[in-house]
Amino acid sequence: MSGHSPTHSSSPYETAPTSPPGTLYNAENGMRFIAHGMRNTTTGEIVIFDSRNVQQWELDVATNQLWASLHAATSELFGQITQIHEDMNGILRLRKEDLKRARRRNQTLLFCVLGVLGFLNGIFLVWVLKHRG
Questions:
Q1: Quick check: pTM over 0.85?
Q2: For bias kind Polar residues, which ranges apply (predicted)?
Q3: Would you state the pLDDT for residue 49?
């Protein structure tokens, strides 16, 4: 590549390597980014360089995107957990109400059974006293 003109290339081996479309970093290219807005106010020249290479910059961007999606997913899960908690509290409240109604029904039934048994016991006692004496 060193002795060839960049205007015309006859072989695919003479073309410069490029990164895949999804990435900016090329291992052979140690290029670095310039920090945004870091220019000398009088000359307009760049004063401070971003010391990260492109690969580190891409890693930082990917990390920030992951943190953002993690925050969104965590918020969504927290909302779902809150909804499930509220639903379970509603179910628990309904079950308690059902248990109270069932207990009242069972108490009423027990009272009726005891009343009938008391009545039958009274009839039996009258019958025994009549036949005894």
A1: no
A2: 1-17
A3: 56
